Structure formats: C-alpha cells, structure tokens
Amino acid sequence: MTLITAMEGREAIVNVRLRLAGRRHSIEAEVDWRGGTVTLDRRTSRIDEWEWDAPEVGAVYGVALNDRREWEAMAEAMTAPPYRKPPEGPVLYMKPANTINAHRRPVVLPSGVNRLRTAPAIGLVIGRTAARVRPEGALDVVFGYTIVNDLSIPHEQLYRPAVKEQARDGFTPIGPWVVPKEETVPLSSLAARVYVNGRLVQCVDLRRFRRPPEQWLADVTEFMTLEQGDVLFFSWPADAPLVSAGDVVRIEMDGIGALENPIVAEEGGEGE
Amino acid sequence: MKQARVAWNGTVTEAEPLDSGRLLLPDGTIVDEHEVMWLPPVEPRTIVALGLNYADHAGELSFAAPKEPLLFFKGKNTLIGHRGRTVRPAGVDMMHYECELAVVIGRPARRVKAEQAYDYIWGYTIANDYAVRDYLENYYRPNFRVKNRDRTTPLGPWIVSHEEVGDPMALALRTYVNGALVQEGYTGDMIFSIPYLLEYITSFMTLAPGDLILTGTPKGAVNVQPGDEVVAEIERIGRLINYIE
Q1: pTM for the full model?
Q2: Contact A61 B75 (CB under 8 A)
Q3: Domain with A235 in it: what CATH number?
Q4: Residue A272 pLDDT level (bands cut at 50, 70, 90)
C-alpha cells in the first residue's frame, strides 16, 4: 500500500464513538463515511438506516474571533466604540444544552427570521478534567474530535453576549460521532467543506485560525476547568453561508465525517 | 419545604435542613450541619444570569437601565456550596460579590406566559455571583474571565420551594462582609421581574428542571480581600456563607 492510499483510507474509515437514537449508551463502531456505511458488531449497514443522537456532551463553549479573516474584517471596528481595543483574553460563548441537535435532525428557523448563519466548527471533546493545562501537552486532555454546526441568527455586534441569536433550541448540531484523536489525522491538518443543497460553498482549514486550539485550551483552562465530555469548539464564521427554510447544510471534515441538517420553517409561527 | 444537597459519610445525599442547625436525611437519620459538606443544592445543565437588572446597580456602574434583559450564561465549574472558599486572583484590583436571588426551574419551560410563570418554578436559592472586574473586556461582556471562573459562584445553602417563599418579588437582600452590612436591596426593585424574565427567556429557549436563573444584584458592590467572610442573605431563604482566599 502506498502512503497516499493509506492516508485516504485513514481519512474515510474511522473508528468512532457514536450514539444511536433511543439507546442510552455510546457505542464504538467503524464508519466509512465516504462510502456511507457503519459497521456495528461486524454487521455493515448504511449510515442513513440509523437514527442518530448527538454525542454525550457536557458544557459546550465556542471560542470567538479565532478566525483570522473575521478578525481582519473587524480590525478597524475594534479600535472604535464600543470595543475600543482588541480583546486580550479569550472571547468565549456558550451553546447551552437546549441548543444541542443531532445529525439529520431539522434546525427550526424561528418565525420572523429569514436566514441563519451556519458556521462550520471543529469540536474538541475533553477526555479528562482539564485545569491549567500547558499548550505543549494540551491535547493530552482531549479525547477526540467532532463536527459542530454553530448556527446563529446573523448579528453584527459582539459587545454583549448574543444569547437570543445563538442559544435557540436546536442551534448546535454536533456529531454525527466523536473520533478519538489517535484514530485520525493530526488536528492541525483537519479541514472542513460546507455544502448547501449539495453545492460547495465554503472550504476552510486550521491555517486560518489566529492561534492553535492547543493554545486556547491553555488560555481557557487557566481560569475555568473543563470536564470530561465538555466541548471547546472553533469556528470559521467569516465566510460562513446564510441559509433559509428548505436548505440542507452538510459539513464535511476529512478524518471525521459529515454532519448534515435540514433547515425547516417554524410551524404556526408567532401566534400559535 | 427546604432541600439541600450535602456530602455526608462518604456519599452525596439530599437533606432537609431543620431549624436547630441539624439536617434530616431521606432515610430518617439526623445529622449536625457541621458533620456535612454543603454542596450546591442543584446541578443545573443551564445557568442563565442577568446583568444590570437593578436600576441602582446599573447606575453605580454608569450604565443606563437596559431596555431588554441582558443575559449571559455560566458553566457549572463556577458553582460551590455554602461555606465554600473562593479564590481572589493574585494581583487584581477589584473583585466584588453579587448577592442574587436564584430561581430554580421545576418543569420543562418553553413559551411560558408571565401569568403562568410561577407554575414552572420549583423554588429559590441564593447565589453570590462574584465578578473580577480587572478582566472586563468589551466582547460578549461580561466576558467569561470575569464571570465564569472556577468556584466563583457560591450557591445555597438550600432551595426553598415557591409555596414556602410566597412572593419572590418582595424579598430583602443583604450582604455582609466580616459582619458589616455592605449591600442592601429589594427584589421588587428588579427592572425585569421573575415572571417577565421567564416569559422572555423561554420565548426563544427551553429550560429544563433544575436549570437556574440568577436574577441580578442591587447596588453596593465593594471589593473583597483574602480572609474576608462574605454572607449573602435573602429574606425567607437563608444566609449563604463564603470565604475569600
């Protein structure tokens, strides 16, 4: 086997930890997400035959302003009110439990809202209690990686927490599974592609991050402890697509898999 | 009724505080409060906190009263129980307590109308939502380095049910540092009342049983130092003790 085919195989076929809808526990399985199959108990079936649940996660935190393109776009505004100067510490936001959503489950467009921003993100799933980790050994506290779709109602201001825009029910699809870090390519080589209705609209990789996730893990755990199952995610919002009801969003990451969700209109609307 | 959560005899258990400083365990055992370690009385999945929800506190921080609730989230890494210790980071100039009425959700709450809000509330407890103002930055303010530090949110000592509290909008709040009264307020002075907040928050997100809403703090935030004893007291609920180290 040549190196190239070995790498391709490694990217498409991965051992993962996943959760099927209706089952209490996570299980281990092998998936070939390009081929669209999952092997459970030596039986291979189509991924689409199963209903998926989101991986078991604790607190889910996003690191804002890590996308260099977003940072550059904001650079001028950062020196003006209300920001006045660029942030020195990490700018974090939380996607609370009500926002967690699973692979292929619909994301509801709130009534009165026409479009959502759908930002791809890489999620680091914590494997053991992480307090004051050092950047050099930061990945020791990480169990693995997952895909996060960081949906929000588009908003310009970052001065106040964007709770109403970010924390809606179902606004954080995550999964379809968690890939243990030893099972896949190095974190720095992960890349994401976003498709809307099958059309490729965004291609990104970690070179666009201002700082590597290992450094952020050190900065964040300097003052807040992350527990097993907590997720720290890093998104690429600068050129993330806007989507409307009827669209289907698919985020692919080589070495992890593909997370797909339809956007649907809210039934009844405001007056129900 | 009152409900606490304690570590006792190598396990974690619910407990009902009795008037005499003793606790009744679910199996009938009665223990002295000094035999237990107090834990946060609830383990929330989601903690929603309010900034600037008392006009006098907003004025004290030179802010106009907000027109819409200013919400932020907190992680459970921040919570510690009654009689716990909170670290003042080395080298900071301003760390202050914030005595707050904490609402404990009792039922799945989605699109709740203000008139029905109390049907969804299990009870109330006290939160002391410390802030380290040196770390304030104008991005998603109040940013996590100010408000989401480990063990900076004492919670407890227990939950008092809604029925036993009666009207949560008519309670006195007081904070004492080393026995001196330093903060005094009245829940009726909230800019956004508890029923209003529950309707507002659940209009766009679902809360689960055990989730918390920290309803903001009145005027009177002063600096605390290592060695200080900080007592946050709310009428009809209790006294939450915390030590700064």
Answers
A1: 0.95
A2: yes
A3: 3.90.850.10
A4: very low
